[in-house]
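Task 17 of the worksheet. Students: predict the tertiary structure of the chain below and write it out as structure tokens. Keep your answer in the requested format; marks are given for formatting as well as content.
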Amino acid sequence: MRKRKLILILLLLSFIFLTFTACSGQGPSDVTQIGNQSEGYRLETLKLAGGTDWGMPNPYLHDPRGPGTAKMKLVFDSLLEADPSGDIPWLAKEWSIEGNTYTFIINEKAKFHDGERVSTEDIAFTIDYYKKYPPVTNYLASAQGNIVKDYEIIDDTTIKITVYEPLANTLVQLGSFAVLPKHIWEKVEDPYTFTGPEALIGSGPYRFGAYDSATGSYEFIAFEDYYGPKPVTARLLFVPVSHPVLAFENGEIDLADVPADLLDKYRSDPSVGILGKDNDFGYKMLINMERHPVFKDVELRKAIYHALDREGIVEKVFRGEGSVASAGYVPVTSLFYNERVEKYDYNPSLAAGLLKDKKISVSLLTGNSGNDVKVAELIKINLEEAGVKVNVVAVDSKVRDEKIFAGEYDFALVGNGGWGRLPDYLRTMYSSKSKFTGTNPHYMGPLGYDNAKITGLAERQLRELDFNKRKELLEELQYEISKEVPIIVIANQTSYVMFRKDYYDGWVKTYDYQQFEQNRLSYVEK
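Model answer:
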């Protein structure tokens, strides 16, 4: 399974590289197709920090991490969306559920960016196409292959989709896949190399404008015939900046992350709004028990926990803006957090007693950006004090991801957002039936580890349609994970963004995702 996933990722990366070459030099400053389109929009231009290449924003060539997916979703619509309260209509204006059949009625006014109308033929085609050619983020995938058993087109706007088994997150899966225009993609035999202009025609609120892989620049243009909520800005730009805070001060961007040591300064500025992402980012450390079977001993995994000064990481790296992570993985501020999980305090003498005579030497794979290296170096210091020799290997994040998918690591440090989501992610990380089904290292589980009770709970919660009962199962699952600690969960960070209140204040987060700038609802009228 891991080899198959690695091959797919490597193919995607190579194809994306070809795409970059084709698109380089077409940055936002080169695009002049706006004309008078800014008239009638709330803003002429909305600018955010770019500078990172997140791939071409279509379902097959975007980077699988959040910023790459978010850019793709500006261009390609899905049947449903989510707001702070729950699932809401999007391309589908109505839906109903009867047994294992989900009926969607799509908006009759929906058009693709080339003017062709969106119909249920496009929905059906996309389902079939994704079965044959899985996209980067395949919401229709399951451990058994695909959740869709069959479909029936009733008319141009109504389609019935029958799934093999109605599960707790089936509606979200069916509502989330990016819809392809059949009249374009039915001619495409290899979507992984399809990079022409038509590869970027969707039905989303913004049309693709420009993309420069070398600088990480993107331009999106308001789709004037959009059927849904009106785009707020005529042009949405992601521009490269070397120092986001200074760029924000100079008016070069309209939203920026706030370093913890500058929070007080900007909180006291009445013109600046501050938004928090509570414990939504976190670090975990994967242990490859296939390479180091000694760590199949649960007491040694617990010793690793006791060796780590995780509170020190929160203070030194996050400046106190965060918390020591739960050994059950789900953050302490989550609605689903189980306060009964096992706790592992910093106890270096206990850890040293368990680890020193083992003569363990490991490499710690990490990314080379953000706080990754800082966290890795603190882990190295702690583990070496406990008797484990550590060599930190810092590489580009994409190289790190490739190595994780291939199982080419001893220990691997992964930092990512999305920890505040409904924690079905525990299933794709810890269940032996569902592990390794994700397309990025956020969802990679422990190699060389299997636990029947954890797998059973992880799979049962997915089949529990009663919310309260499902919550109880997720809490029990956390407790079992905290006793077994197959993944070492380090710390969660609360991060903040700032924006100009008098320019734009329409930032929105969903009920299960706190990344305001990665939510397309932030870029349409409310």
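Marker's comment: Residues 2-23 form the longest helix (22 residues). The chain is about 30% helix and 25% strand.
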